Amino acid sequence: TMSVSQMLFYSKKNVDPETMLLPYLRRKLRLTGTKYGCGGGGCGACTVMISRYNPITKRIRHHPANACLIPICSLYGAAVTTVEGIGSTHTRIHPVQERIAKCHGTQCGFCTPGMVMSIYTLLRNHPEPTLDQLTDALGGNLCRCTGYRPIIDACKTFCKTSGCCQSKENGICCLDQGINGLPEFEEGSEVKEEFLPLDPTQELIFPPELMIMAEKQPQRTRMFGSERMAWFSPVTLKELLELKFKYPQAPVVMGNTSVGPEVKFKGVFHPVVISPDRIEELSVVIHASNGLTLGAGLSLAQVKDILADVVQKLPEEKTQMYRALLKHLRTLAGSQIRNMASLGGHIISRHPDSDLNPLLAVGNCTLNLLSKEGKRQIPLDEQFLSKCPNADLKPQEILISVNIPYSRKWEFVSAFRQAQRQENALPIVNSGMRVFFGEEDGIIRELSISYGGIGPTTICAKDSCQKVIGRHWNEEMLDTACRLVLNEVSLPGSAPGGKVEFKRTLIISFLFKFYLEVSQILKKTNSVHYPSLADKYASALEDLHSRHHCSTLKYQKIGPKQHPEDPVGHPIMHLSGVKHATGEAIYCDDMPPVDQELFLTFVTSSRAHAKILSIDLSEALSMPGVVDIMTAEHLSDVNSFCFFTETETFLATDKVFCVGHLVCAVLADSEVQAKRAAKRVKIVYQDLEPLILTIEVMSSMLMPGYYLFFLNTSLTFMYFPVTGEIHMGGQEHFYMETQSMLVVPKGEDQEIDVYVSTQFPKYIQDIVASTLKLPANKVMCHVRRVGGAFGGKAFKTGTIAAVTAFAANKHGRAVRCVLERGEDMLITGGRHPYLGKYKAGFMNDGRILALDMEHYSNAGTSLEESLFVIEMGLLKMDNAYKFPNLRCQGWACRTNLPSNTAFRGFGFPQAGLITESCIVEVAAKCGLSPEKVRMINMYKEIDQTPYKQEINAKNLAQCWRECMAMSSYSERKVVVEKFNMENYWKKKGLSMVPLKFPVGLGSRAAGQAAALVHIYLDGSVLVTHGGIEMGQGVHTKMIQVASRELRMPMSNVHLRGTSTETVPNANVSGGSVVADLNGLAVKNACQTLLKRLEPIISKNPKGTWKDWAQTAFNESISLSAVGYFRGYESDMNWEKGEGHPFEYFVYGAACSEVEIDCLTGDHKNIRTDIVMDVGCSINPALDIGQIEGAFIQGMGLYTIEELNYSPQGVLHTRGPDQYKIPAICDMPTQLHISLLPPSQNSNTLYSSKGLGESGVFLGCSVFFAIHDAVSAARRERGLRGPLRLNSPLTPEKIRMACEDKFTKMIPRDEPGSYVPWNVPI
């Protein structure tokens, strides 16, 4: 009963109730298009479409869902459509798949099937969606590569409104200005005609057999069972009550979005689960005279639609509550979760940060309960929410429906929330507030306030509300209420979740917002009675989030002399783009299982610095399916590898140095068995001193440091009016595909194949060969493509591969190892947190004469690449500025955290931010704008860097000028200042930052590259090279190179992947130079071949490649060539502090505008303009993809991505639920990217420049725009003195920097009087 396109679920008695749809699809049915990204419904990589037929309404409902949370038992009678089902390259591709590929909406492609399914499901329900519906549909899908702009462009092609941004800024539509939302192609041709049309009649029909089954089948309870648990699906209310009577402790599961994550991440186990299926009474919607009754089984998405409908039809005064609920339903989780989660489940779970419960609690809602004993009604109030036994459901009761009363005249309800990210993020604090006046006299009759996110349950400020009843709605009442509420809703300094002072501030800031909202309405109805709101305060009421995205891209023009067949310089689609979109692109874990394959999982340390006293494996070894458990003893003399200068051990021997340190590896027949056994390994620790987590504590234990001097005078005599420091947090790579590998022993000559998701196959080959005591020629490492890497898939991957290979070799069986998202985040380390200290001497006009800098990086437990990161940070710290006198020193600090590693930008995003912070402070001291100080210190045309390398900065000045013009900086600066004068609680900020990013690897050897090109006798060509395809499109560029050099169409050239078998000794893929170096090697190989074939071609110029290849073969001319590039000249003498480490510089500038809410710390990215100097782009579509993807990643780094560690060194942020990377809502509403016209550079590949990393730093334009807005707020509040803001600039830091009467009112804890939940790292 399975067809690949859709899967129909009939009752199979032998289904294991613990099996989720995702592993069932991937392992059992081998449908690997649906990806594993996080396992908790937080990233959208596993989105599928679920369709169900309702025999009563005769309607089919399609909705998106996260396959990782859906138990297959709950899918009886449903049709599941996966990405394979909607289109493939073998049959035909679906318009969604085609457009996302053609609009360059895929880079690594790992998130693409989920994106496609979210859009597809939306189109099944709304064939011509609005832009709001689109951004809403994609709110639950994360992408780490693209920055979302091209994905939205692809979606816009389905909208009625064409490419218009719908923002009508200054009353002019963007289309009227000739700025189209789609890329401007050189030919000026419209892009729309090239797409397949969307034809709703051609979609898959709902399987008729499921309809017949739903209509005809007698309704009876279904039961599925395994040895461990039983799953009941009752289909009538009577059966449901019987089951709940029989199993009172069993949870009632609808969408599994609450029970699922608890089972998965918290180890909760339920032997019996009751999952009601299509019980009508649970999905009732009753419009009564006093309010609305909603069935507990309705999904949150259905509730949202019902409320939206009611709000349209009823008068406003009746729908206050429904409007407030709608506001929260829009941002609650993502579309998939909203479609799965039920209203009843949300209420009953009573999560402390539930968004709906605080609102329902203030709205006098009641719950209708039912059990075998009969009906009962209880209020949804504080007692119920804090699970008081006498106010809760009895074990055998079921929640049937919820009554939500209409609001009355003179009754007002508001909802507030603040989260780390605007959408799809749990709130830090949320609140529901209701006031009832009874009449227009403005005397409070009823007041009800409740908060979520503050304590273990939703908290109602009952006493405070009671005390202000009977008072007038005025400032005096507000002041009293704030003090009362702060007193009543108290929060200890050590509260879980941290951010304690921020939370206290939000409690009263929300109350103030509510006061303003109600005052404004009262004023409208009776202006005599109420004092008018100060105009400056009105802005506090508007929401920040305008939705409609508009973007423009300016590609480079192609020269008139270029041959029409030559693809170089054209915006050619990523070669795998269509396969990404159809799910046919194969990643490491999509490879089919090998016979007798085993699965390996790690047991990691739970202590940050401890001695291992004992490891007890006996219980774990006795579990079913467990084959072996390996510790350091088993690896004995091969448990380490010399890396740069330091020897790293794989598995801990007698001590552990961080939480997440690998201790042992469990080998079992399946992933489930390995994970279960890993939990049973018993390790006894003895904590050791000292436990060092932060750089500040650490200054004592420095690893060797680096110095960079560039002095004209001695710094000792200088006076430094500005001294300061800035702290910068780390960043998690969050590549969508976690660390994955499959190691296959070949069975003869000790040969072994390693299929792995890595940036550095040679290193994997070396480390595996060393561990197995084999020569490297027996170990082959193969990489087809990588689902995102960003620097995080080189060295830690090697350690994991070494242990996995050891296991495979020991047992002579294939071993697969795929980390779960939480393990990956715990084990692998990320970007180095930095502490930067600076002193600056300068003139009144802002010219900096002398700068003294110190960089300290938090290296983690081992050296790894930390010194190299410090080195690059020092060499690049000058960014775009000439400092006549400079001293800069850098140290890597050893701490008890997982070792930090390479990350896109490699030290520059940290070093650059420290320099820019210093510039902003100098500007403040001089009373100038930061942009003026930036301009006066910028490199002039021909100049010298601190390490005496010649530089021509002409293009830097051009980028700066163009960005100024393109962004209308001066005009907008005036508008921003005017806005800030008129608004007290909202502020705008504008900032422009230049960029000089040096490209080079520091040594010639590190830049060598090789390629191998074969021409076959039919004239087709196979190219291989040493670079890894990880989303940046290097393979696409290589085929463009081969196509140009061999003068043949791209379709004639093929590329299979990267392997140590074809190109040996390749360097790591990173450092922005992968296409440069490998491209020069491919070019070299092609030219060698062409030179050999030149005589043949000139004799038969009209011939085909097939003719020429055959002739060459007949004349014994080799049709295969190795290409080689030695690397760019590169050297650096650290003793003298001079050298020529870099080949060229990428220049750019970015201007960003933000708006902040001073009461909540929220910020909105309004607009960003980026100008980049890219030399001559080989593929402008891919290059712009790199620029904007890096920019959004940098914006995340500097604003919302925050890692939290406990004082014991335990990572709290282990997945997308706690760690927020930018989502669609974080995109600047307007994004404009322009490339400078082509400029020549003799040494590089066709004068191109590598753009992989430089854009990350431009994200700090958003950081400084927020800084600008906060400064404006502080000036207005009379706060002088330097403003020091650390990165990331989260809502918490923004709010607490905008000091006002509310931040002064909150209680503060004495440091040392409590143990904080987290320590700043």
From TrEMBL:
Substrate binds at F906. Binds 1 Mo-molybdopterin (Mo-MPT) cofactor per subunit. It holds the Pfam family MoCoBD_1. The active site is at E1253 (proton acceptor). [2Fe-2S] cluster 2 binds at C108, C111, C143, C145. It is found in: Cytoplasm. Residues 1-86 form the 2Fe-2S ferredoxin-type domain. Its EC number is 1.2.3.1. Residues 224-409 form the FAD-binding PCMH-type domain. GO terms for biological process: lipid metabolic process. Mo-molybdopterin binds at Q759, F790, R904, G1071. Keywords: 2Fe-2S, Cytoplasm, FAD, Flavoprotein, Iron, Iron-sulfur, Lipid metabolism, Metal-binding, Molybdenum, Oxidoreductase. PROSITE patterns: 2FE2S_FER_1 (PS00197), 2FE2S_FER_2 (PS51085), FAD_PCMH (PS51387), MOLYBDOPTERIN_EUK (PS00559). One of its GO terms (cellular component) is cytoplasm. Its cofactor is FAD; Mo-molybdopterin; [2Fe-2S] cluster. It catalyses: retinal + O2 + H2O = retinoate + H2O2 + H(+); an aldehyde + O2 + H2O = a carboxylate + H2O2 + H(+). It is an enzyme of class 1 (oxidoreductase). FAD binds at V252, V253, M254, G255, N256, T257, S258, V259, D355, L399, R417. PANTHER family: XANTHINE DEHYDROGENASE (PTHR45444:SF3). Homodimer. Belongs to the xanthine dehydrogenase family. This is aldehyde oxidase. It comes from Saimiri boliviensis boliviensis. The gene is AOX1.
